Amino acid sequence: MIALEFIGLLAILTGAAALLSYGAETLADGSIVLAIITTLPEYMFVIWASIKGHYDMAVGSAVGSCTLLITLGYGSVILLATTRASRKPVKVVKLSKHTQVDALYLLVTALVAFALAYEGNGFDLKDAIILVAIFFAYVIHVAKGAVSFAQSEKAANHSPKKLAKSIGLLLVGGVVIFFASEPFVDSMIKVAKLLRVSPMTIAIILGPLASEMPEKITAYITVIRNGKLAEISICNFIGSKVNHNSLLLGTMPIVAVLQGHAGVAGIVNLPFIIMTALTVVATLSLSRRRLETWEGVMFALLYVLVIWGAFHIAGGPMPAAHG
After folding, report:
1. Residue 291's beta-bridge partner residues?
2. Which residues of 117-151 are buried (b: 16+ CB within 10 A; e: fewer)?
3. Predicted confidence (pLDDT) at residue 19 exceeds the cutoff of 90
4. Within 30-73, where are the H helices?
5. Distance CA 239, CA 123 (A)
6. 245 closest CA partner among 100, 53, 111
């Protein structure tokens, strides 16, 4: 019964996330806006898990989404673009200098988030303010930059019918996610107890299936259509990852403070360390501005490291509110 409940809610949330992704493609003015809209499921998971006092699950959801992006997500885009899986494959995915600068923001957010978590053995309100400030600095950077790749590939003007459809998809997807997220968090807790594993393990491995896969599938379809469009998907991934490393992580101590706690303790654990290390490796890859097939294989295989880390946390300290 617990398994059926979980699978049913997973299917509902995945469908709702797909509606958000499809609706956001038309209305979003750039990768960062698209990233904010499409990460609504992660925010709801983190908020509900934090409200229920399961900060381990909140951290797991954020970490799981991040690591999925820079392993299977990032690697698959490179593989699809540089192999016959794409209708118009390319030998090498070439990145612009603008994307290279975005990658620098990705590196900064990852290192700052890790330093803040390590320095205070968790996140408090001060850390939340710093993380949110970094996020808005990135938003300003994107706003001042050139027209995004996503905009350049889509028509600037859309028919009223298409706009109305997109708004409808966003509203329906958003409402479903809002009401289904709390029972989904409850079902993940039940599954963790049933399997006798940490709730963080379930959040890392299964949570992103609902929140991330629709956006990834949309990105894959774009690259399958034309390998030259791989940079669009990569830019959206970077925007999502910066979002995760800053605003999403900063949400947890804010919720904790609103509940009367000083913050969230015990953030730094094996999955968090793996996430930070993988982000550094991904940034080094992006800095080359040339992505090749071997890199796609490497990053896709690195997801095994994520799975390993998720199942080696049960004995370690779990994140908890402190205050």
Report:
1. 93
2. beebbbbbeebbebbbebbeebbebbeeeeebbbe
3. no
4. 31-38, 40-51, 55-68
5. 22
6. 111
For residues 239-248, give the mean pLDDT. 89
Q: Is 18's pLDDT higher than 50?
A: yes
Residue 139 carries which side chain, given as an amino acid letter?
Answer: V
Separation between Cα atoms, residue 19 and residue 173, nearest integer Å: 5
- Tell whether pTM > 0.70: yes
Nearest to 201 by CA among 8, 54, 17: 54
Higher-pLDDT residue of 213 and 288 is 288
**Greatest Cα-to-Cα distance within the chain, rounded to the nearest angstrom:** 56
C-alpha 56/C-alpha 39 separation (Å) is 19
Cβ contact 151:29 at 8 Å: yes
Across 150-154, 204-208, 279-283, least confident range:
150-154
Query: How many residues are recorded in the chain?
Result: 323
Distance between CA atoms of residues 36 and 245, nearest Å: 12
Q: Is the pLDDT of residue 282 over 90?
A: yes
Q: Pull the structure tokens for residue 84.
A: 């016959």
- Residue carrying structure tokens 């593989």: 79
Residue 223 and residue 230: Cα distance in Å, rounded? 5
Of 26-40, 53-67, 271-285, the poorest mean pLDDT is in 26-40
In the 8-state DSSP scheme, what is residue 85?
T
**CA 154: distance to chain centroid?**
24
CB atoms within 10 A of CB 91: 11
Measured between alpha carbons, how far is 273 from 280 in angstroms, rounded to an integer? 11
The answer to whether the CB of 234 falls within 8 A of the CB of 80 is no
Distance (Å) of CA 137 to CA 108, 110, 132, 134, 140: 11, 15, 9, 5, 5
Domains and CATH numbers, the chain: 2-313 (1.20.1420.30)
